[in-house]
Design a protein that fits this description.
The structure holds two protein chains of two kinds.
Chain A lengths: L1 H9 L2 H32 L2 H27 L7 H17 L4 H23 L5 H20 L9 E2 L16 H24 L1 H11 L1 H6 L4 H27 L1 E2 L6 H14 L5 H20 L3 H15 L3 H11 L3
Antiparallel strand pairs in A: 1-2
Chain B lengths: L1 H31 L6 H19 L2 H7 L2 H20 L4 H24 L15 E4 L2 E4 H23 L1 H11 L1 H6 L4 H23 L9 H16 L4 H21 L7 H12 L13
Helix pairs in contact in B: 1-6, 1-7, 1-9, 1-10, 1-11, 2-3, 2-4, 2-5, 2-9, 2-10, 4-9, 6-7, 10-11, 10-12
Classes of the chains: A mainly alpha, B mainly alpha.
Chain lengths: 333, 292
């Protein structure tokens, strides 16, 4: 945001227009390149890259859900892991305990998550700032405890045997990493497109208004609390989608997916990528997963460097990698 | 009845341990508005310092004295050299600084694991405090009574400092109106650093005295910090006296649910927190606090 302001101040209107079109063209080129790369990836490189890409996309969907609250509405939640876990457990219970097919258990899970999120969101959005952060954390710890204690969810061992989609009617095998990769890729594109539609819609504009000044939005006659609950529900469902994919990817779900560390990692992904764009959370997820992988290859003590890395990101790249790249590429002296 | 009494004492002991952590956390929040997720890191560091000192000198008492020093130093450095400059450069104290301390929490856990490995360590209970004592018909470990004593002593000491000294008056004024205190010529940054350091030292002290009871491992601080947040919120953010009562409530809830309702043990305190935030989002004890 501040970059745009300084840009407008330092350059003349004309330069601004050419700059804007340059940016747009470059973004288009980059997006096309990324898309082609994503499509071609399984042929270009070894299966390791494919699994990494799957992890990045799942983390990216999770971060997108968080960003609708954080970047879109200005609400910092430290409890989105609970919806990731609920998504995974929903499919786990639906498929393994109730024996339902995926086409039934997935929509049911999403509906249940939406209903739960409506209730939880109604409570949480009464608070703001640090209180919002803490109450979302408390709710996620509540579900974390329930997942460990309940017999239905098999305690801290978690549930295994979560099925991947059955694609035999297309002549494909969902257990094949490449097939699963394209399945996740399609879902990621759909989620990103939906996020873009939401943020660009009047609904998204009102969320932005709430982020900038809740009082003014209320004074203009918008039912601020309903909009916040709405954003909370959409974010929860998005995180649940990531949880469903995650549990299908590993055939497994355990309480760790609801831990507050995981919620914090999601927030950090959003901060790394930047909150101002739809691709930010995806880029943040990519940096996060690659850094984690790279560090754990280089050293067994990755957690220390991981922590230091995040402190540096928060201290020096607050606006995110995407904004930093933009200003590095197109900044004028 | 005897089982119940033991549970009450256990709850009291847990409460006092939580209070040592919560006191620093709530003051840091009340004064600087920083949600210090790294508070658990100071707990871990204190415990490991204690293990090293007790291991090399064989003296628990020296460990108790030296253990909080490293957290104290780190707390002062962190606040005055990292958090304060960032806050002055316009970083959001709620989000950015909380995330930075989140990173620090993990960096510390990783660093500790790097140096000490992932083994579970412990400090042997000092001879003078080992053994049991007969109390109201039950036999209770002396060391746990010692923890209760330390907690109460710290509570009395902090209350005295807070209510009766110049530092305390400045602190209360700072919680009320930071800008006004700065305008009156108080070096508010130095005050912040001192409070941050003292809070960290208290967390380190908690780490040392917890070490003979629980195992010392690299992620011990990560688990306890969330429970400490429950205490701080139930007591009212920034409310020292409130966090004392709240640590009693939370510690007792925890101990009682562990003993009598193990099914709800993992989430009883979080249900309590949610209840408090719905009914009294400002904390249970906001009105108890005397506003100077």
């Amino acid at each position: 945001m501040s970059n745009e302001v300084t840009m407008a101040r330092t350059s003349t209107a004309r330069e601004g227009i050419t700059l804007a079109s340059q940016v747009r063209r470059a973004t288009l080129v980059l997006a096309t390149a990324a898309m082609l790369g994503a499509l071609a990836l399984p042929w270009l490189s070894a299966s390791y890259a494919t699994t990494l890409a799957i992890e990045i996309m799942i983390a990216g969907i999770f971060a997108s859900g968080i960003n609708l609250l954080l970047g879109g509405t200005g609400l910092v939640s430290l409890g989105q892991g609970m919806f990731l876990g609920l998504g995974g457990y929903g499919v786990g219970i639906g498929s393994t305990v109730l024996g339902l097919p995926l086409w039934l258990s997935v929509p049911m899970t999403l509906v249940v998550v939406a209903v739960l999120a409506a209730g939880i969101g109604a409570v949480c959005t009464r608070t703001r700032g640090v209180e919002f952060l803490l109450i979302t954390l408390a709710f996620s710890q509540l579900f974390f405890g329930a997942a460990i204690k309940l017999r239905l969810t098999n305690g801290s061992d978690g549930m295994s045997g979560i099925p991947r989609p059955d694609l035999t009617f297309l002549g494909l095998n969902g257990d094949n990493p490449v097939v699963f990769y394209y399945y996740v890729l399609i879902v990621t594109i759909l989620v990103a497109a939906a996020m873009w539609r939401i943020v660009e819609s009047p609904f998204g504009s009102i969320l932005a208004a709430i982020r900038e000044s809740e009082r003014r939005a209320a004074a203009m006659g918008y039912a601020v609390s309903s909009y916040k609950v709405g954003a909370f529900i959409i974010a929860a469902v998005t995180c649940a989608v990531a949880g469903i994919l995650q549990s299908q990817y590993t055939y497994f779900i355990n309480p760790d997916s609801m831990s507050w560390q995981l919620s914090g990692e999601g927030v950090l992904m959003v901060i790394i990528g930047g909150t101002t764009s739809i691709v930010g959370p995806l880029v943040g997820a990519a940096v996060f997963v690659l850094a984690k992988q790279g560090l754990s290859i280089l050293t067994t003590e990755y957690m220390m460097f991981f922590g230091i890395f995040f402190m540096l990101v928060v201290a020096f790249f607050r606006n995110g990698v995407v904004e930093a790249l933009k200003s590095a590429l197109w900044s004028k002296p | 009845m005897q089982v119940f009494l033991t549970q009450v004492l256990n709850g009291l002991q847990l409460s006092m341990l939580m209070y040592l952590l919560a006191a620093g956390l709530t003051l840091i929040f009340g004064l600087m508005n920083i949600l210090n997720l790294a508070h658990g890191a100071f707990f871990t560091l204190g415990a490991y310092c204690g293990v090293v000192v007790a291991g090399s000198t064989g003296s628990f008492w020296l460990a108790l004295l030296v253990g909080p020093l490293l957290p104290l130093l780190l707390g002062v450095v962190l606040q005055s050299m990292v958090l304060q400059p960032l806050a002055e450069r316009g970083r959001s104290t709620h989000l950015d600084l909380a995330l930075l301390t989140f990173g620090l929490l993990f960096a510390t856990a990783g660093a500790v694991e790097w140096v000490f490995g992932s083994a579970f360590l412990s400090i042997p209970t000092p001879v003078a405090l080992s053994g049991h004592v007969n109390l109201l018909g039950i036999s209770y470990p002396v060391y746990r009574l010692f923890i209760i004593g330390v907690g109460l002593a710290v509570a009395v000491g902090l209350t005295f400092v807070f209510d009766r000294t110049l530092l305390g008056a400045t602190l209360r004024a700072g919680v009320d109106n930071r800008a006004m205190v700065a305008a009156l010529g108080v070096n508010i940054n130095a005050l912040f650093a001192v409070v941050f350091g003292l809070g960290a030292a208290l967390a380190g002290l908690a780490g040392v005295i917890a070490a003979p009871l629980t195992s010392v491992y690299s992620q011990m601080g990560i688990t306890i910090v969330v429970e400490t947040f429950v205490v701080v919120v139930v007591g009212g953010l920034g409310n020292l006296r409130g966090s004392f009562y709240a640590s009693l409530i939370v510690g007792m809830t925890n101990a009682m649910s562990q003993a009598y309702l193990p099914e709800v043990e993992m989430f009883a305190i979080y249900a309590l927190l949610i209840g408090v935030m719905i009914v009294r989002p400002q904390g249970l004890f906001r009105n108890v606090e005397r506003v100077a």
